[in-house]
Amino acid sequence: MNEKGDADARAREDLAARERIRYLHGPDGSRHPNESVFLELDRPSKLVIRHVSPPRFVLTVTLAAHEAGTAITWAQEFEDSAGAARIRHIVEPANEQNLDRLRSVLAGG
Hints:
Elements: H1 9-13, E1 20-25, E2 31-42, E3 46-51, E4 57-66, E5 69-78, H2 81-106
Antiparallel strand pairs: 1-2, 2-3, 3-4, 4-5
């Protein structure tokens, strides 16, 4: 879910059973094309997603035990570096929102 409340709850509940998600569902029930392919899911430590819809990228998230809690590594590799540069002002705050939500979940909140 992002700050607008967009989410695909079914993807969160049934991630291991799915290879693709084709839509992002908004809080008003609207559907937005947003295809992703789950390349790897190694519970509980690694998730690799290929974002098929533009902008195309591969996201790798790893979680590891750390003395302060959980260490999170978030690596997003875009297919087109020039395109990535053009949307950096959108991607960076969106990723921070995602990481903030993940930290909250890992902290039990």
